[in-house]
Write the structure tokens for this entry.
Amino acid sequence: MTRLTGLLKDWAASDFAWRFRTSPPVIFATVVFLALVFCAAAANWIAPHNPFDPATLDIMDSRLPPVWSDGGTAKYLLGTDEQGRDILSSIFYGMRISLLVGLAAVLFSVTIGVLLGLAAGYFGGWVDAVIMRLGDIQLSFPTIMIAFFIDGVAKIVMPVAMREEMRFYVVILAIGVADWVQFARTVRASTMVERRKDYVAAARISKVGGARIVLTHILPNTIGPVLVLATLGLGVAILTEAILSFLGLGMPPAQPSLGTLIRAGNDLLLSGEWWISLFPGAALVLLVLSVNMVGDWLRDVLNPRLR
């Protein structure tokens, strides 16, 4: 306990903590992000309704406006959709799916990108050439096209009965495959710098294996840029998933994300039910904006040239 208290005191006195305390916009963005994450994680307990339990839905409550509009009711603060589902509860549950997809996709792309970047930067030669050329080819295709390709391959390979169940993993794969190159290039550049330093030469003289040198010596020195890219990549991944879901390539209606909710409401905009897509869209904007603000701040803090 005493050691933990000492670590907390050291962190509070650090330059990192001081720069955080003196950045009100970043504090506000962090509070908003943590609040949204809490609402998504605790949706089962804090959501007024379970919008995906058919037994609790009433078709007579469909398309009700928000509580402050004519015809609104306090039972549904932000109104309901065409199936009678509570919009506020749908946002909580949908935000959970969006965050899970974004985090899993970033973790997948970070893992692939870091491993390939370490290999390219440390070994060089034909290994570097092959990996970087693959990255160049990857960057020549937009994310949407890659998602179309992976979705098409998944539909061919998987049985019809499994397509809806596996859509979650297909979306993660599509986003992760599309975003690994930026991590690989960043880690490759850092690795090429680190491998020329004296501590790496000393490790080689001591007969330390190449894999151990890369994982225990070089990798820790590349974590800073990767952390910044991963934070910014989370917002991009969430937004990409929303775009794919809006286009019909993302999450199915049975597991709706924020993008799926926006798509469902978009079909009813001309009918006057603006709240069905507006509120999920506002939640998506707040989520992505808060993540990007924190990521931009981390980039400034961890960049020694800006100190």
